[in-house]
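Pilot study result, target chain (313 residues):
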Amino acid sequence: MSGIIRKNAWVAGLLALLVVLLVATRMIQPGFGVSGLESIARAALPFVFATTGMAVVVIVGGIDLSVASMMAVCAVTAAVLMERMAGVPAILIVLALGLAMGVINGGLIVATRVPDIVVTLAMLFVWEGVALLILESPGGSTADWLQKSIRGSFLIPGLPNALVIATVCIAVVWLPIRRARLGIAIYATGSDERAAFRSGVAVGRTRIAAYGICGLFSAFGGLSLAALTGIGEPVPGPYLLASVAAVVLGGVVLGGGRGGLLGPIIAVFILRIVRTILTLLAVDPNVTTIIEGTIMVGVVMLGTAATMRGART
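Predicted structure:
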């Protein structure tokens, strides 16, 4: 029992911090309640999916700088397709597209042996160009039921639909993988690639699969963006640094091999509530952006320093 507590101490600490921030929000704004929780959950939904995809890649020992661009491609694709066909086929096509983009990223990294950061930085511009080819400016439209699906509460007040959707999507994709051979291979590759290879792990295929999963979650993120706005936006949003910061704050080691998805997801809500508190305190939006950026950069720098210190020891 004590081992389980120690193993999940960081996640428990994040949960406690989340509760403290929610209480602080209620103290600042006594009217903050169910509608406020729903608003935060809706705003956090794309960040949750971007962070989840990034977490999987970081666990395998890599990083994907093209997450936001892949989300943009999926968002505009969904908006264009839903003008011409039923929503469900369009969603399936978008999910397949996201998976394909992730596999392309991973395949290029494995085939060329160029560092992840270089390949995905180049693909950031490639996917951004693809998004602009599909839609030069914001446009298209998404199905009404998709937009309505992320609004309101599920069964009981205070349980936002957006949170339920994120939980179901992540659980359906990740839990079977985590418990299967692929999940073990992802952690083994991130922990020690050479040892994993000597143990019979197909390291190349594992890395490609991890990037494919990241692309799939990016597709979910793109769909959530389209559901939030009702249109397709070809310009990537601020999801890259935010996802990296949430991954690090959530306890995933940048070197790979350690961490889970729950911590980063909680970290997303912590960062979104911090923004909400700054807004309620009437802090200038420009100052809010500076504070958010400083927090994200600080978290990433601390995570990098901790990883380098661990590597030296």
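One observation from the pilot: The radius of gyration is 19 Å. A full batch analysis is planned for the follow-on phase.
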